[in-house]
Prior knowledge:
- The protein is of the alpha+beta class.
- It has 2 domains: 14-103, 434 Repressor (Amino-terminal Domain) (Orthogonal Bundle); 129-310, Immunoglobulin-like (Sandwich).
- Helices cover 19% and strands 31% of the residues.
- The protein has a 6-stranded mixed β-sheet with strand order 4-8-2-1-10-12, with no helix packed on it. Strands 3, 5, 6 and 7 form a 4-stranded antiparallel β-sheet that branches.
- The protein starts with 13 loop residues before the first helix and ends with a strand.
Amino acid sequence: MGRPEQEITPDGSPVRLLAYWLRELRDDKGMSNKSLISRTGYAKTTLSDALGGRILPSRPVTLAIVAACGGDTERWAAFHSQVRRAVDPHTVGPAEITPPPWGNPAAAPGGVHNEQCPPNCASTEPHGWYTDSVRTRLSLDTATPEAVERRVVVATCDGLTRIPLAFSVPRHSADAAPRHGLDVTVRRGGRLTAGEQPYETFFRHQLLLPAPLRTGERHEFVLRLRIPPKQPMAPHFVHVPLTRSQRFSLEVQFDPARLPRAVWALTHVPTAVIYQRTPGNALLRPDRHGCVAADFEGMRVGYGYGLCWRDA
């Protein structure tokens, strides 16, 4: 038996996003890697590399996989060009990455994540929903860091019943504890299925909606995210949209008695930049209550938006 395929966590890297969405297309079609080898004519190693998320597959290999899965090769070709531009160090200006189409809309039932909108749907979002807005208040003046998020989603297909949720909680440099956690609860707008933690710093849930949504219907839900007691938090809070997300507002309440040495906004940055801890040109000042706020629009898939700070 061959080694099992290693799971991909979509962390904003363009190459990993491409591999992640190729796998979603393959799995949605119910294709095995053995079938892909037969249908594409490419070797096992070539396809494994394309679906591995470590290197950018060539355009011919990508489109061969898409064609074998019944996908829209023309739109996937445009998507591949976006990814290639995003990883090119000589690219001038931001490189936009738009999620690709999954496959044949008529082949998938509506209502769940990773399935196509109806053929006449006006939205370009292929997941059955998109995020209209995220409003987050992060409290750092409490016994343990706590964020309350209000999210509004819009259904792009009939019968939407659940929304996938994923959170990345990187370790603070001073955190040497053996366990690493995140407590997620729903205050309004649905209930959570049992969560999973496939990686030490990555947490995944499904939000079950109170009732199925119809195309164009909006739904608001409120989450509470809490770091476990005595677990330090990495000094940033960033929204990295992996699907269409239109607006994000963030308010961070610092402890007025322990204000950070510096605070700056992160706007349209690759995920690696988040960890560089390099202040931007414009530093932000907490108000007299210790609060800093920022708003973001026109966000692009796979890039980070939020606030970063240096601890006191």
